[in-house]
Amino acid sequence: MAVITMREALNQALSEEMERDGRVILMGEEVAEYQGAYKVSSGLLQKFGAKRVLDTPISESGFAGLGVGAAMQGLRPVVEFMTWSFSMVAYDQIVNNAGAIRYMSGGQYSIPIVFRGSSGAGLQVGATHSHTPENWYANVPAMTVITPAFPDDAKGLLKSAIRSNNPVCFIENEKLYGFKGEVPEGDVLTTIGQARICREGSQVTLIANSASTHVALASAEQLAADGISAEVVDLRTIKPLDIPTILASVVKTSRVVIVEENKPFAGWGAQVAYEIQHRAFDSLDAPIERVTGLDVPQPYARVLEQAVMPSAERVTEAAKKTLG
Amino acid sequence: MASSGAKKVRSKEKPGNSPAMLPTLTPSERVDLLRKMVLIRRFEQKAAQAFMQAKIRGFCHLYIGQEAVAVGSISTLHPTDAVITAYRDHGHALARGMSSRECMAELFGKITGCSRGKGGSMHFFSKEKHFHGGHGIVGGQTPLAAGIAFAQKYNGTGEVTVCYLGDGAVNQGAFHEALNLAALWKLPVIYVIENNEYSMGTHQSRSSAGYPLVKRADGYDMAGITANGNDVDDVREKMWDAVQLARTESLPSLVEIKTYRYRGHSMSDPGNYRTKEEIAERKKESEPISMFKERLYKEKVLTEKEYEEIERQAVAEAEDAIAFAEASAEPEVATVFEDIHAPEDQIAEFRPPIGS
Ligand SMILES: Cc1ncc(C[n+]2csc(CCOP(=O)(O)OP(=O)(O)O)c2C)c(N)n1
Ligand SMILES: [Mg+2]
Question: How far apart are CA A56 and CA B114, in angstroms?
């Protein structure tokens, strides 16, 4: 199997799906001639031409809504937000139009659209550029929300997202674009809505997504050094949640730490904690812990930002707390 | 690389291909325009009554006074062209050929409604009739229209999109983003500002800088056209130019149509921001149905007797729609979980069953 970066994996997914289906188009700021602000769309203009790979003006509301309108007519747009932080000016189009037109019309329209782009904090770009908005969009009933942590999942899940007949928020994390991993060649899809156990363990379950999965894995190493066996569940999809996989792990370990980069209030971890206590109350031996981004606007200075981000140390500390 | 040629492309001075002429309507087609306008008027008066009886709830924005705009403009389209509008959508839906029954049933929240009772007054849809809503967020439909036109152009269908918005909506950012995209990418879309002078209780003089509003087309090198919305013939003529520009040259335009609404902003608006005299004066000057009716009398294509019959039929159709809506079933509560997701056909279904 080839070892490639997340960026290359995403690029392969886009290229293969555009090759396969002439209705798939890619639009966004700098996606074509500049080859992508993060180079995810590198080479696609050359391969598919300006009719299908479109540089947009800096008009997130305009081009997100344009994508939804095109999807209502049967195209399958992939709309790139340079970063998800900028999706807020398109929030109405995503929530009310992508999210509700099928329902409001009594099921007359399918909205096969993928909104995707970079997200996340930790690179000292301050409060406006550091959002991890998976919890915001997971609150939209019709929305599928995908947050891959590894290159193979990034590719397989993006391919599935493009083939879904429903709106998908595909939220990448900037910190992971250069992350390398094995990716199977060819047309391999990852099923949406399935978590993966990326490290088996028996004493505590660490539930994470996206970049936080790597924080959880680092913590699991620390815990192992202290003789504690941690299981790491990478959710991969935030909505719909893979409740069976979560519960199976909780039943096994009886202790849970949730690791999420988004802010604590109604972060996705709050939903996961609710589901666990509701469905597996008797399996729990300790209160569920959450390690989240701290409840402050993202600061710039490195020491401050590092304090705000979930860290392996904070996760390890929380895990030990569940073990008493 | 903005469409630099577009600015000069005004009605009557189009370069290049000689444009198709506005088709002259037969007398009976002209009478049909009147018939549609009268139907919309009577439909909405019945809806207003039903609202007062609390059979229709929520927001209900009436189109009374503006009928010539929807009827005239939509009469210049092919049946497969796309129409999209804001929340004041009953008139456009009926002009597009949606049935009075499905529209009234939607107002009543019945399962037989055009959106299965899930949209309500502001969210009528009929994909079959290429009527793509009914949109409740001011200006929110304008980027969608650009996208629909984008798909029409991408697929080479030769169809065009008409997007209606109010004079208040011109100040939404989304509208300007959509205009720029439409001009930049040469999309076959016509944005129609229905300038009824008010956005809720705010007169346009207190909400917009820069008149006439159609001037906003200039900033995007887009054709700007104005029409008298009380005169269905004028609306047809001016819209025709815009539609031809979109259809033959794939160029967008902005059409400002001057109109006036006779009722409150919505059924819940007492209308204290303008005088009864103002409304009465406007009606006397330029009521679109009587204006057109008188013209047809003069042209001798309509008699008073025939007009009475048109009235009778419109009232009968509106009453039938009320009866149909009343007799229709409420949606089963279980349908609340339907129509959220489209079935998957390229990947396996991945959502757990509702309620699991
Ligand atoms: C984004 C947004 N802001 C406010 C409203 C509330 N609202 C509904 S209609 C309206 C006035 C719009 O006036 P105009 O665009 O002129 O259309 P008209 O009602 O005259 O047809 C307002 C403020 C809304 N629906 N959406
Ligand atoms: Mg208005």
Answer: 35
